[in-house]
Amino acid sequence: MQTYPQSSLEEIIDSERAMLLDGPERYGQHYKHARTATMYLTLCIKSIELDRAEMFGRLFALTKKHHMLSFLSILRLHRAQAMTNLRQVLEAGAASAFAIAHPEMHHFVDVDEFGIMDPSQKLMGKRYKWLSQNYPEKSASIAEAKNRINTYFTHANIISGDSVFRMANDKSALNTPFFDTEDKYYVQVDLWLISNVAIMLMDLFFGVAGHVASAGRSVVDFRDDFGHTVRGLAVESAALQAEIQASERYQKVMQDIARRQQGRGAS
Known about the structure:
Elements: H1 9-21, H2 23-43, E1 45-48, H3 50-75, H4 79-101, E2 110-111, E3 117-118, H5 121-134, H6 136-152, H7 158-161, E4 166-167, E5 174-175, H8 184-214, E6 220-222, H9 226-245, H10 248-266
Antiparallel strand pairs: 1-6, 2-3, 4-5
Helix pairs in contact: 2-3, 2-8, 2-9, 3-4, 3-8, 4-5, 4-6, 4-8, 5-6, 8-9
């Protein structure tokens, strides 16, 4: 396994660049698929009508930015950072979908008499309710991913801390690296996850835009190759998911979960 120097700021900078360039060799098809999905998310929309640009445009920009940051963080072995960025992707993506259908500012912020804006939780709840009612499958996928991220990654805990902490077998020394200890299996799983999120969100945007267009006006114009490209990405995603699920690591985790559930049922 490749090791990357990290004893100084300059070494960290050089190592992070090397990690990105080494991505194809380190993670193969998982890297290529994630890179393609990440880049296509940034390019899939050709134009946005002016009345959608203010809300959807800025939310879509957030979605794209944080997805790219998540991809880069995975390759640079910063898993907690990658998942925190992915949470931003999920939240901005859900809001983006809503903004295609409902572009008015009052759906996104409350403005007081001093002109100060408050992106209230109440408004966020209304958007998620709309998503659940109109796109229940996508809503469930977003909620499941957010819940998992919230449980393990958005708050400091000893589980996430394990990736940057090692103790010698005789307890005589500690190792606290800057980069996560590389686990190829988890890196590949994370690359698949962020790609799957990108595909799901692009499909959601396309669906919402289609429903708006069917009511009388097209407000978001997608690339001519959108349907073909996203379907191809979905096929690749399914194949990589099947590969992950066929691995011994995955099977062991599933067996452990099943035993735990059986134990809880017996008690």
